[in-house]
Amino acid sequence: MTAFWNEFGIILYATLVYTPPLLYAALGSCFSEVSGVVNIGIEGMMTAGAFTGTVVAYYTSNPYLGFLCGGMAGMLFGAIHAFATVNLGADQTIAGTAINMLGPGIVIMIARVLYNSTDTIPLSAAQKIPTLFKGMFDTSTVFGRFMDNVFATYASTYLVFFLVILVWFIFYKTRFGLRLRACGEHPQACETLGLNVIATRFACVCISGFLSGLGGACVTMATSNQFRPISIVGQGFIAIAAVLFGKFRPQGALLGCLLFGFCSGLKVVLGGSSGVNMHLISMIPYVVTVIVLVLFVGKSRVPAASGKPYIKSK
User: Fold this and answer.
1) DSSP output for 113-149
2) Is 154 in a helix, a strand, or coil?
């Protein structure tokens, strides 16, 4: 029984470690998608945030500043995507693909200039996002170890769960949320009411980039301690799958990210205690992503104007 609770606590801890990066990016994707702009450039924005957050934290020894700068780097790429798709009317899928290629390319080039390597210098414990409530529980007991695994997690984890509530409130309880949802459904009708559809969509894509950048920074500043070219690979697309699973709602995205985070946590536990090939175990989150897309993508109601460039009437 003790072994069961220990294993269960480890899985929960791993779930709380791997869920936040996905959830930050998924919340960002909700802003963009609900406003009517398809953003598959989440992966590139996360990569930019991961690199920038790590570098800033290393040189300033301030993890919170690094975390914020990671979000700003993602917002920069979000603004590029917004300018191309919202202002210029470019194809949103192609623009997002370009962001996914541009983001990793730029940060790897900068990494080679700064460190003569594609990797950054590892962060020290003081430069990483701190854990909260560490040491508050008596780990000599089964219950204490379980509580330590569940609650002694990173500050960024607590923040992202608060953001889920905040984003839900913005979407469904504020005038801005009503406007952004209307822009994703009937942009022409919004224009007749005097709403600035272009400005609203541009702002939402920038917010999407900022939250994606926070997700990327969370990966390298909490989950790991160093940026590498493979730090983000696949996580941006998993976040998009979570949004589809959650039907473009923040609370639904939370459930989707918890599912994928649990699969990643299960991968960690099985990888250390199972005789199954590690490569097969590493496939678990991606296989679950494909299954979710097959089962749920047809049941998700996409905003009516999603993916359609909006041309302002003259």
Assistant:
1) HHHSSSSPPPPPGGGSPPBSSTT-S-TTSHHHHHHHH
2) strand
